[in-house]
Amino acid sequence: MNSSNATALTQPGVPMKVRNVSKRFGAFNALDDVSLEVAAGELVCLLGPSGCGKTTLLRCIAGLERQDNGVLYLGDRDVSDLAPQARDYGILFQSYALFPNLTVEANIAYGLAGSSRDVVRKRVAAMLELVGLTGSEKKFPGQLSGGQQQRVALARALAPSPSLLLLDEPMSALDARVREHLCTELRQLQRSLGITTLMVTHNQDEAMLMADRIAVMNNGKVEQYATPQEIYDRPATPFVAEFVGQGNWLPFERNSATHARVGGMNMRLADDAGRAASGRLFCRPEAISVNPLLHQENLFPARVREITFLGNRCRMSFELNHLPGHALTAEVGSQDLPRLGAPDIVVALPPSSLQVFA
Amino acid sequence: MAAEMALPVPGKVIPKTSSAELGDRIFVVGGKLLLLLLLGVAVLMPLLAIFWRGFSAEDGQGGGWVAARELVTSDNFHWLVGNSLKVSLSVAAIVVPLAYLFAYALQRTMIPGKRIWRGLSLLPLMAPSMLPGIALVYLFGNQGMLRGLICDNIYGFWGIVLGEAIYTFPHALMILLSALSLADARLFDAASSMGAGPFKAFRSITWPGTRQAVFAAFCLVFTLTITDFGVPVVVGGDYQVLALEAYKAVVGQQQFGRGALIGMVLLLPALFSFAVDAWLRRQHGDSMSGRAQVFKPLPSTVRDRCYLAIVLLICATLLLVFGMAVYSSLVKFWPYNLSLSLNHYQFNDTAGGGWLAYRNSVTMALCAALIGSVLIFTGAYLPKRPESGTAHAQLRTDGGTGSGPGPGLRVLFQPAGQPAACALRDDDAAGGVHHCSLFDHRVNDRDHRLAPTGQ
Q1: Which of A97, B127, B215, B334 is buried deepest, with most CB atoms within 10 A?
Q2: Any chain B CB within 8 A of the CB of A99?
Q3: Closest Cα partner for B277 from B217, B357, B328?
Q4: Angle at A26 between CA A21 and CA A32, to 5 degrees
Q5: Distance (Å) from the C-alpha of residue B92 to the closest C-alpha of chain A?
Q6: Domain harbouring B209, CATH code
Q7: A343 preceded by cis ω (within 30°)?
Q8: What is the pLDDT of residues B108-146, one digit of tens each?
Q9: Does any domain span residue B194?
Q10: Is any Cβ of chain A less than 8 angstroms from the Cβ of B192?
Q11: Distances (CA, A) of B1 to A170, A232, B80, B278, B324
């Protein structure tokens, strides 16, 4: 490693490809023919409930778990059969996994074996500056707070200039405030370094906040792989719709190309809504207007059941008069509360916000 | 959430004296005082007794300052100390690495039949130290079955080392097994992701996590060996050691003062290891994070075969020795009539009580087991009860001495207690004390390692 390399914080990111990877644990199908492509310098989140296979996928990419089938590429190198040591990535664990008996300095220098002492020292200093912990070289992990330990772990993962950064639920051990702060910081750092990053999380806020693209996983499969916006606005499957954000579900029967029957009501659908003859309609709470000032389509009388105050917004639970017993949620601004005149209201379900699932 | 959590704290500062809480307090504090008292009676009193014996110049007892100076300056004493040290250091140097490999095989590899190997390896715990010595005589003695196979004459240095090695092996193994039982899988993942091979991972993760246990095992084996006279008395031959000298002084010559003096000398290594252990513990941070993931060894054929070979070799040796002991107890008249019989089990004819001695042994062992387990459980439980800050400070000092009483107690009891017990023809009672102190060590050790989880 020469001096110019030592000052470069990381190598430019490389693309990563996962092709048809499967992994079984006994009868349990942890990964079912998963394919995923991550562009160079991109931050991708694997999002899903526990047991969906996201951590298994990360561990396969890291070489800590061996896939049954499938191929893994890092850049144009096939790394499918390589030992973890030979794969060129850095990893950050939920539990920090710092070596408790080594100083911060020795922890960060752990992956720099083979470099001269001077290079290592400079590199450690540069990494500590990067994560904002200059001066902590001689401390032991036990003397640092959780957030600081995770920063050291990040410095340690980045020290050998890996071409891929893997984050395994890196924030879940931290308390909410530290988490939010570190999320933003980590994202900025990742952008400035341009390092390809794959992050596992079950926290959708974290994924929304940080990711360029999110892969929502369920039962060992990728349900949808898209930008956060697209995942929120156009969920591809009922699972994604349910897992990401809040939503309302309405059972329907199609009665024409443009209309569906819901309970005793006739609802207009958008032109590009699916062709399914029956199933469920999906609608985000904030897309529902309560007592709209302007004339809108799909206006229905309803009755308020409960209002939860959330600060700048309120969550309103209501029932459509023509669909009794079926609770729906709408979100309204707190300043609109006085003009709503509860309990009898009129709600509008705009056709563009209604998504059709078979 | 944070605000909710913070609320009850000011309320806690004001002492609430509900009757249940008061009872709880009395139970904990009273229990601790009682334990302290018991510890004082069981440890300090014998210690004082030994000192008193050693330094009182009664006629014919061989004690007193003059006798002490004479003893310490005599050439024979130097020779004995040298022998004892040589034997103990050799045994520790042989047993600890072997026990480490064995424990590593059981905890960190995927060899088959782990339960069997574990059971076999703990065999020597069930027998007094004399047994391996006797078996060695039958194997390699002048009329031994395998005489000439390893050496011409088993009596002497190597006989003692071999016998003590077998006797102390399970003691070291138990400490190392518990030290190697807990490992954070994430640390190994992190190490391999940063390019560390198995050797570097061992050096940076496994070794720092277990070196203290290795030290403890070393001290334990050392003190067990230096204070044991069971093996030297059988296979020592002309090679004399200090513990045997103490035994002879007390049992043979009725010189209790002299025995006490030597007992005090034997106490020194235990005190030394106690101090070093306490110092090491202070150096050591928390070894396990509460979020640790349980380490599961990955399959590796070469590694597993190597370890299986080591384990098989050790188990075969132990089986050979103990099988020999059992076999020889059944043989009619060694080595002339090798037909089997139960003649030797007819204790009625034995001098010194026969079946009565056997029954006494069993009764004493039962009592020791009952009292010991109750004491140890309360001793381990009480300090863990959540209480005021002072109690917690006390807890730390209690915990800090956790491994101390292991070797410490044993040495205190052995030079003083064992000859006396032996005089009663009873080796089991002393064994009871051993095992109690050993379990005490394990209980404390585990508590220690799990404590961070409970935060």
Answers
A1: A97
A2: yes
A3: B217
A4: 25
A5: 26
A6: 1.10.3720.10
A7: yes
A8: 999 999 999 999 998 888 888 888 888 888 888 777 777
A9: yes
A10: yes
A11: 21, 28, 68, 40, 67
d(CA A198, CA A15): 11
Asked whether the beta carbons of residue A91 and residue B187 sit closer than 8 angstroms, the reply is no
Give the model's confidence band at A329: pLDDT under 50 very low, under 70 low, under 90 confident, else very high.
very high
Q: How large is the C-alpha radius of gyration of chain B? A: 25
Residues 3-32 (A) with a CB less than 8 A from some CB of B = none
At residue A96, φ and ψ (nearest 5 deg) are: 65, -45
Q: Which CATH number fits domain A3-89+162-241: 1.10.10.10, 3.40.630.100, 3.40.50.300, 2.60.120.20?
A: 3.40.50.300
Domains held by chain B: number:
1
Q: Hey, which residues does A346 pair with through a beta bridge?
A: A301
Q: Which run of H or of E encompasses A278?
A: strand A278-283
- Residue B289 identity: S
Cβ distance of A99 and B205 shorter than 8 Å: yes
State which residue of chain B sits closest to A173, comparing Cα positions: B291
CATH architecture of A247-357: Beta Barrel (2.40)
Q: Model confidence at B455, in pLDDT bands (50, 70, 90)?
A: very low
* Domain annotation covers residue B386: no
| DSSP H or E stretch at residue A157 | helix A146-158
d(CA A287, CA A268): 15
Residue of A nearest to B208 (CA): A101
* Subunit contact B192:A84, Cβ cutoff 8 A: yes
pLDDT of residue B143: 74
Q: Where are the domains of chain A?
A: 3-89+162-241, 247-357
Residue B194 contacts A where some CB pair is shorter than 8 Å = yes
Query: b/e string for A316-350 if b means 16 or more Cβ within 10 A?
Result: bebebeebeeeebbbbbeeeeeeebeeeebbbbbb
Cβ distance B67 to B261 under 8 Å?
yes
CB atoms B291 and A85 under 8 Å: no
Determine contact, residues A134/A179, Cβ cutoff 8 Å.
no
Note whether A111 contacts B195, CB cutoff 8 Å: yes
- SS3 state of residue B168: helix
Domain limits for position B89:
54-341
User: So what's the pLDDT on residue B410?
Assistant: 35
Q: For residue range A84-132, what is the model confidence (pLDDT) as tens digits?
A: 888 889 999 888 889 988 899 999 999 888 888 999 999 999 999 988 8
d(CA B298, nearest CA chain A) in Å: 10
Question: Closest approach of chain A CAs to the CA of B446, in angstroms?
Answer: 18
Q: Is A173 on the interface with B (CB under 8 A)?
A: yes
Which residue in B187, B285, B287 is closest to A97 by CB distance? B187
The region, left, alpha or beta by phi > 0 then psi within -120 to 50, assigned to residue A211 is beta
**ipTM exceeding cut-off 0.90 for this assembly:** no
The answer to whether the Cβ–Cβ distance between B194 and A175 falls below 8 Å is: no
Confidence of residue A80 (pLDDT cuts 50, 70, 90): very high
In a domain, B36, yes or no: no
Sheet holding A77-78, edge to edge: A28-38, A16-25, A69-74, A77-78
Of A329, A137, A156, A277, the C-alpha closest to B193 is: A156
A-chain CB neighbours of B208 within 8 Å are 99-101
